[in-house]
Amino acid sequence: MLSLREKDRPIIQKLLEAGCCGRCILRFCCIGTQSAYRLSTEDLQKELNAFVSSTEATAAAPPQSETNTHTPSDDQPSDDPPSKRIKLDPDSSEDGGGSERVPVVTMGPPADGTETPVCVCVVCLGVLQDFCDPHFAKKISEAVKSEDYAFEDLVLSVSLPAQLSVREHSCWLHIKKEVREKAMVLDKEDVIQVNKAFKWAIQGMLSQELKVPVVTKSPFEVAVGFIHPDTDADCHFLAEACSDCFKPTKNKESVFTRMAVVKALEKINDKRFLKEYPCPPMRPQAACVAQDTTCLHVSAFVAGRYNKFSRTLPQTPWVIDGERRMESSVEELIVAPLLNAFKSDSFNFSSSGREDVDVRTLGNGRPFAMELLNPHRSKFNKMEVRRIQEEINQSTDKIRVRDLQMVSRDAMSRMKEGEEEKTKCYSALIWTQKAIADEDIKFIANIKDLEIAQKTPLRVLHRRPLAVRQRVIHSMSTRYRDPHHFTLQLKTQAGTYIKEFVHGDFGRTKPNLGQLMKAEVDILELDVESVDVDWPPAIPE
Amino acid sequence: MEISEQKEAPSVIDRYYTRWYRTDLKGNACEDHCILQHSNRICVITLAETHPILQNGQSIKSINYQISAGCSRLNNKVSGKSKRGGQFLTEYAPLCRITCTDGKEYTIFSCIRGRLVEVNEDILTRPELLLEKPSTEGYIAVILPKFEESKSVTEGLLNREQYEEVISKRANQQSEPC
Ligand SMILES: [Zn+2]
Question: Nearest to residue A178, comparing CAs of A55, A8, A3?
Fold first, then answer.
């Protein structure tokens, strides 16, 4: 079952003596059979002990048969916990470093009657021992279940203490000769990695508990992490040996990241390493501590168009000096039912341009998209999305949403593409100081593709750079209302500041409507009539 | 759209800016300045309507933003959102000097602490803007106070009511027989 071969014997012997756990031994023997890692910690230990204690003559036979014929534990009751029966003598490596002898295996409980705990592995610091058992799998599963996510599969990610790489390297140097003898082609890269072995051991149990496959790529990630503060100092000698690998970075609390340690280990020569670090590694006092299991689902994206019918509703929450200026916002009205349906932690809202608090958006509305982060629900069919849209629309009469749909992250960027080249249509209520007749404003409709130069408006200058932007007013038309009012319809290049085009902003937009009309004018109301962006696709009612 | 009943709608300045004043600048009678502060803290410096330049048919001979041999407000350049590189002005920093055809020269001051964002170059080629539309197209300069000073910069200034009081007192004094 373990598919161990005669050439593995010296490797296994040396690793057992060094205090390696069963799964780490399989790893260093480059055993790529996943099922071997699923054996219980005890059974695996038993089989390995049997393998090394069998004679040269019988070694070629399958390990199982050796267990049956040669295991010293044969005469023990089989339901006894094997950890009590088989235990490596912790002192066996003291004088046996280079010897070829079989490690001493102690049998049964110690003479004083106390339970001797299984030694913590010198390489994986226990990650591939107790943490590979059904109890820990259950603990992970319970943590996942308690978060109440909907998912069809999951990817397991494992974060290990950086010093595991140092210990791995030390152990590799310890048995390098024997591994190379086993096969010419094997190298350190062929050793099965700890996180891989951990996943092989545990993912079947997780899959059974959670009733979904554990795969290598999934939108749902379950992260398990281990720390071992007692041995954090293992890495420190590397900082002196390879100082260039450990540059302090802003958001990392320690320079000894796994990446940096791996890089340093690639650079350091064997002689220097062996001078600075014990080979094999020192035996640890206790096993790793598991950190809380965390879950993360990739973002969901929705898009649509919104109308805004209120002149007292900002697009996003309006806060000045930490104080809320207006109740609610377009963003909040749209997102509340979405957050609720997707059971999402937070969101990012973006739209094709934005309107001022006192501007309405009519017509087909303004395209918007929303990223819903870490959604606990992410699969919705068209009917369900429509129902969410209805919920938004029933919750308020200040806005209305249409064309709500699920989109991909890539599709979202299309909304921002070529935004400058798009056109927008507006309708503005204009006030004139001097009395006007219908004839006085007729000339405006004859102005085509008027180029204007706009300095950054004073009202946004505090948060935007000062610049002069060229914009085009493609066409305009007028509707006379009374001697002091008319409606101005405009089709403009996106990014044109309409209010400033009308009142001139202290003459900083040139030409402006006041100059064209040779009159004092002001803008009283403004509506966006259309945003000519053909995304997201329309959804028939 | 409903047309509001109001015939004279409040102007852009009334809606978004607060008017502040500094009168008799540097002890020179009637040299009053107006500071329009936007709700976003941006300030526009203009002549107050009582400034001597705007009285009884004055005309302008020249406007000069070169306030000393080494310093011209026309060289002011700002970049980025934080307006890096803009000249930092204190309350009595001169912005420009205006000479009228009667030979009198007036200095226009910053009135508030802040970074100079821009000066109005249009009045150099069309000085009549200063006379015809002193509080809009004839503005002098735009200044951005420091964020933390956006409230305190106007502390020493007069509000509209106080300014009107000063003006009416001035009128009374002038009408009193000497
Ligand atoms: Zn191990």
Answer: A8
